[in-house]
Amino acid sequence: MSETSLPQPLHDALLDVLGATGLLTDTTDTDPFCTDWRALYHGRCAAVLRPASTEECAKAVALCHAHGVPMVPQGGNTSMVGGATPDTSGAAVVISTTRMNRVHAIDHADLTMTVEAGVTLKAAQDAAAAQGLLLPLSISSEGSADIGGVLATNAGGNNTVRYGNARELALGLEAVLPDGSVLDVMRKLRKDNTGYALRQLLIGAEGTLGIITRAVIQLQPAPRSRETALCAVGGAAQALELFAAFRKQDPSAIHAFEFMSGTSMGLVNTLIDGATLPLEEPAPAYVLVELASPRADDSLRTLMETVLGEALESGLVTDAVLAESESQRQALWVLREEHAEAQKRAGASVKNDVSVPLAAIPALIAQATEACEALVPGLRVAPFGHIGDGNIHFNLVQPEGADPKAFLAQDHAIMDAVADIVRGLGGSFSAEHGVGQLKAYMMPAWRGGAELETMRRIKAAIDPANLMNPGKIFPAA
Fold this sequence. Notes:
The chain is an alpha+beta fold. Helix content is 35%, strand content 19%. It has helices at residues 8-18, 27-30, 54-66, 121-130, 147-152, 160-163, 166-169, 198-202, 236-249, 262-271, 300-314, 326-337, 339-346, 361-375, 404-408, 411-424, 443-447, 450-462, and strands spanning 23-24, 47-49, 71-74, 93-96, 103-107, 112-116, 133-134, 170-176, 182-185, 211-218, 220-221, 225-233, 254-261, 285-293, 317-322, 349-350, 353-355, 380-381, 384-386, 391-393, 396-397. The chain is globular, with a radius of gyration of 23 Å. InterPro entries: FAD-bd_oxidored_4_C (IPR004113), FAD-bd_PCMH (IPR016166), FAD-bd_PCMH-like_sf (IPR036318), FAD-bd_PCMH_sub1 (IPR016167), FAD-bd_PCMH_sub2 (IPR016169), FAD-linked_Oxase-like_C (IPR016164), FAD-oxidored/transferase_4 (IPR051264), Oxid_FAD_bind_N (IPR006094).
């Protein structure tokens, strides 16, 4: 049964543009699009629009704009901050890009990929790998997160330490603006000094300025040699010292350098089937280090063994295991990639995706742990993340046996306690997950004055009716 609340003329026009498979109005079909991955937000929508091309998307957006209907862009629906979830009014439509899922071209001369927004990151990685190339962006949700969402949130991930965030990997972009016009800056140029870099305005805007529909992504030669090791360390200070040791030897060889607390690793080992810690004893913390090179005969094993040998001898590292096969390498990466899922299974959690200067990471973890344990005795402090670029997911899991709702009722107090420490250390309250609706209330204190006002002016200039992803990034007036 159709339960649409769209005006009938708009419904009929959208049906004509999108077809029956591109317009969902029954709540049975639309409900999955109205809840975020963490189940923190449960909204409602008038319909879900599923365009199969930029042309369809532009026509649908123009129709919604003409009728004053709010629009919520959504890709793989993996947002950690409610950035792709509609509010509870039911007035908005969700515009899903999942049907726009074609890889158009891979250019070996330019080392680029032209891809539609609905291609999952994993599918794009696989397409590049089939051509002997590497799409270096890698995140835990890459199997469901898509290119449009990755760019809209300026995703970071495991390889940022070497290749940068999504922003650094996007050369060209196409987007449908709030009025239905199409912004086409699909250029492959590394050098184009002709005014504002408009693609960068859309990247990281979380869908508040338009819907990304296509992109030109930079690729790299695929690694032909790779070495991966899991190391037990005493804590964040030792992890940073180990990072410095590898960087001193060859910074260009570091492909990933990931930190995991003992508590968070314990949840993975307990709650994730097939996850096995290949070390003799549990440790206070762990580091997963991966070295990679496009040269087949690179001496990465020698580099790995030299640095780890010295670290083991000095006591900086207490135990370590090196992957001897691709299957062993993947098993080590499972231990890192499943932290978010393990914490989800352990109960309610408050996530703090923060960044600080590298030297401040030990102080961040120590001070934030003390502050949060004082607020909620018994909570499980489970930080992990990309220590090589200063991004720590300082996550707090509810005390065992606690009421999840009661714990989440304290989320702002917990986030604010962590944020105060991050601010004192010169950091950011959102390193890679974005602001969404979860953290919009923080913006005036952190980005107030001329910075936030400039953002508001840009938003008002491009979307004066505030129809594109309203309620995200900007706090309620």
